[in-house]
């Protein structure tokens, strides 16, 4: 375990409650099914191939667990963790036999060099800008040399204050938008190197999408 603690977002409880409220609709709308997004699936398949055999994989912000199960189907030793207990209830029911638990990305403190891969698939965009660098630093330290992090998120400038989501369900959260260069700078500061970038300018959610894949360098390079 790494000893340093990450500051918890001031709105963490409100965000958790919001995802608990939307979880049933998220499942009914089948939004977690990677097989319905061909470009995203291609990126995920590339990630799965890159990390296979490197060690356990953590799906951070796994929601109802569809991606976790998909990655397991690609031969990975994967577990899922999510802020929302209701999302984890769905994940456990929908994907029996897989490992899921409730926690925030900001609380994980995974052991150093313990993971072959980390997927953060549309699950970091609610983190305030000053907290994301610390979370990425914890991810970088948790990866084995050669391990990969894949991030899927909303691309753009500024932020969107959401008051409803997934069919007019009341929520209270901020969606922080990121430009690729901004995120690459944070990943580089965390000690991760660039592997791949995918920009989807037409998104099903109405906001352009961004996928970044970063890699912990092999032995000899220090992770900050
Ligand atoms: C848009 S959903 C994506 C779920 C899943 N990754 C998928 O692709 O279907 C966002 C998920 O991130 C989770 N989340 C939000 N903030 C989080 C945090 N700080 N730590 C862990 N999970 C978080 C939410 O509870 C929710 O399940």
TrEMBL record:
Q: Which InterPro entries match?
A: Methyltransf_25, SAM-dependent_MTases_sf
Name the UniProt key words of this record, in alphabetical order: Methyltransferase, Transferase
Please indicate which superkingdom the organism of origin belongs to. Answer: Bacteria
Matching entries from Pfam families are given as:
Methyltransf_25
Domain Methyltransferase as annotated: residue spans = 57-147
Q: Name one GO molecular function term.
A: methyltransferase activity
Protein's GO biological process: methylation
> Coiled coil where?
none
Write the protein's name.
Class I SAM-dependent methyltransferase
Protein source organism: Kribbella turkmenica
């Amino acid at each position: 375990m790494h000893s340093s603690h990450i500051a918890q977002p001031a709105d963490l409880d409100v965000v958790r409650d919001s995802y608990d409220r939307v979880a049933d609709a998220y499942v009914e709308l089948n939004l977690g099914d990677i097989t319905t997004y061909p470009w995203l699936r291609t990126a995920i398949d590339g990630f799965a191939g890159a990390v296979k055999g490197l060690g356990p994989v953590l799906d951070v912000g796994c929601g109802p667990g569809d991606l976790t199960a998909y990655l397991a189907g690609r031969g990975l030793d994967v577990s899922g963790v999510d802020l929302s207990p209701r999302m984890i209830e769905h994940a456990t029911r929908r994907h029996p036999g897989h490992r899921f638990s409730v926690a925030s990305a900001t609380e994980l403190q995974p052991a150093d060099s313990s993971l072959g891969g980390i997927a953060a698939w549309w699950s970091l965009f609610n983190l305030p800008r000053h907290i994301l660098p610390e979370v990425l630093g914890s991810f970088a330290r948790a990866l084995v040399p050669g391990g990969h992090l894949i991030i899927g998120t909303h691309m753009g400038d500024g932020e969107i204050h959401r008051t409803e989501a997934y069919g007019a369900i009341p929520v209270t959260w901020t969606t922080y938008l990121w430009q690729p260069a901004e995120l690459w700078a944070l990943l580089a500061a965390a000690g991760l190197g660039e592997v791949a970038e995918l920009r989807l300018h037409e998104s099903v959610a109405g906001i352009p999408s961004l996928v970044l894949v970063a890699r912990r360098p092999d032995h000899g390079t220090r992770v900050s």
